[in-house]
From TrEMBL, chain A:
Annotated Polar residues bias: 168-184
UniProt domain RNA polymerase sigma-70 region: residue ranges: 11-76
Gene Ontology BP term (one): DNA-templated transcription initiation
Species: Subtercola boreus
Keyword Iron: no
Name of the protein in question: RNA polymerase subunit sigma
Domain of life of the organism encoding this protein: Bacteria
Gene3D superfamilies the UniProt entry points to: 1.10.1740.10, Winged helix-like DNA-binding domain superfamily/Winged helix DNA-binding domain (1.10.10.10)
Family: Belongs to the sigma-70 factor family. ECF subfamily.
Location of the region described as Disordered in the Swiss-Prot/TrEMBL record: 164-184
Length: 184, 219
């Protein structure tokens, strides 16, 4: 198909992915700004995007640039923290799997996002762009600088670290996991 | 080579709860995007859908005015794709630009409005079709003309069939009242929203035509 979709379809199809990438790279609080800047910038450039372009990769690349801008404006290094979004932490069980609900989700999302936030920058970005954003390692390497092999390694080291958190969580052996799901 | 992205989907795939939260966040961010795109003059087309007695209507407007009204039978997704190709792909669901026309349509379907007072963008029509469509609002609420009469009125009495196709391709049905044009034998002819919709609009107007809006309760 060579026709260009209405931009609304692009937001609907990729908005969630881009928000998760922004959250992983910047943390929940700065992610909204980066998401807004990404889609505003994408809307502006959209008419010039070739019809056969990989739209998601294009968006993730823009998100990377906007994340750098947001970080510069904040005057600090990228620090992703595993905080919950404010709109979630008040009276909602989203992300946590719920306090005593019958959610079938076995994962502790808070622990996962905390673990993502605790990764070294390169690993966190590589994981975000490759595993959340679907960018091939060659394009991840272009964004982060360094070789394709280095991007692949950073990404796989990052995932290994996340898996370690998970295996702790699943066996209930990690102290922080005990705070989840408790009613105040 | 195996696909490492697929291999890790289990670990990083969003949970049901996270998806619900993401959706709520995107809804807020979308509102902000609508406002910022409008302020930056990058929102070439805004659209929304409204419910009506003749089904869901898609409304789309450029910054010049209302450019398209589409019935559900036209397939709203297909209509949006056509708009994307013919006018601009910078399209967002942004109801605010359509607030006035949505309110006027509601009044029209309630029988309290007889004419529309919103700017129209004729971009989707040209030539003879545009000429015919520009004449249509002159046909008074509650009355009808034949394809033949319209052809004569726009100065081309031979062009009865062309008038028919001008009505059939009216990009602004309801607002530009192509439903007020009938065959010479009094039968309905065709209609972009289906004959049932055309009949419903004519019936609505014949019920309200004898009463001046000022005399109606609540006006």
């Amino acid at each position: 198909m060579n026709t260009k979709q209405p931009f609304e379809k692009i937001v609907a199809a990729h908005g969630t992915t881009v928000l998760r990438v922004c959250r992983a790279v910047l943390g929940v609080h700065d992610a909204d700004d980066a998401w807004s800047e990404t889609f505003l910038s994408a809307l502006k450039a959209y008419p010039e995007l070739p019809p056969d372009a990989n739209v998601e990769a294009w968006l993730v690349t823009i998100a990377h640039r906007k994340a750098i801008d947001v970080t510069r404006q904040r005057g600090r290094q990228p620090v992703a923290v595993g905080e919950l979004p404010e709109r979630v932490s008040v009276g909602s069980s989203a992300l946590t799997g719920g306090a005593g609900d019958d959610s079938t989700d076995p994962h502790d999302r808070v622990a996962l996002w905390q673990a993502v936030g605790a990764l070294p920058d390169k690993q966190r970005q590589a994981v975000a762009y490759h595993y959340l954003g679907g960018l091939p390692f060659a394009e991840v390497a272009e964004l982060l600088g360094g070789s394709v092999e280095a991007a692949r390694r950073a990404s796989s080291d990052g995932v290994k670290a996340l898996r370690r958190v998970y295996s702790h969580e699943q066996s209930g052996g990690h102290p922080s996991s005990r705070t989840k799901g408790q009613k105040p | 080579m195996n696909d490492p992205a697929a291999e890790n989907l289990d670990l990083l795939a969003p949970s049901t709860d996270e998806l619900a939260e993401l959706e709520a966040s995107i809804t807020e961010l979308h509102l902000l995007l609508e406002r910022r795109a409008q302020d930056a003059h990058m929102l070439d087309l805004a659209y929304t859908t409204v419910d009506s007695p003749v089904g869901s209507l898609l409304l789309a407007a450029s910054d010049r005015g209302l450019v398209r009204v589409a019935y559900a039978v036209e397939d709203h997704d297909a209509v949006l794709e056509t708009l994307s190709q013919r006018i601009s792909a910078r399209i967002l669901r942004a109801p605010r630009r359509l607030d006035t026309v949505a309110a006027e349509l509601e009044q029209y379907f309630a029988g309290t409005r007889r004419a529309f007072d919103v700017p129209l963008d004729p971009s989707l029509s040209s030539g003879f079709r545009r000429l015919v469509q520009q004449h249509l609002p002159d046909i008074a609420y509650g009355s009808t003309e034949t394809y033949k009469e319209v052809a004569a009125l726009v100065g081309n009495p031979q062009a009865v069939r062309a008038v028919g196709s001008a009505c059939a391709t009216n990009p602004l049905p309801v607002v530009v009242p192509c439903h007020r044009v009938l065959r010479s034998d009094g039968s309905l002819g065709g209609y972009i929203g289906g004959l049932a919709a055309k009949a419903a609009l004519l019936e609505l107007e014949s019920a309200g035509a004898g009463v001046s809006p000022a005399a109606r309760p609540g006006v």
